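Below is one protein, fold included:
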Amino acid sequence: MTAERSTRRRNVPEPVLGWIDWAQTARGASTAFSILVVGGLAQPVVGTVAPPVGAVWLIIVAVLAFAVAGCRIGDAGLPIAHGAATAVFGYLFVLPLVVFAAHGIDAGQVAGTAAVAVVVGGAAGWLAGQARSRTPQG
């Protein structure tokens, strides 16, 4: 007999990692991917229109993408870890495009961006978890 948990929609089997809501992880990572791609494509325009903003545009876009992904916690049991994992998945989805565009991989950049994803996604997940715990259920 499989363990089941009740959600607002239906009874679903207990996931492999109980602290992750996989549906929300997929949605959050997909949203982060979209924000990263559109922001990356907009960087040359922003750099031309406003050079000081263009210099930090990709950093702003990455932080925004990771924060949005981290907020998608759904029914996660451990929001901080869920937010961090969702942001990292979003970055991993876009990483092949980054490697292709740069004609190679910079290990320092990958590690640094992944660390930012963990910190920003985790912080956003924690804040979303705090907001969820203050919201009356029902």
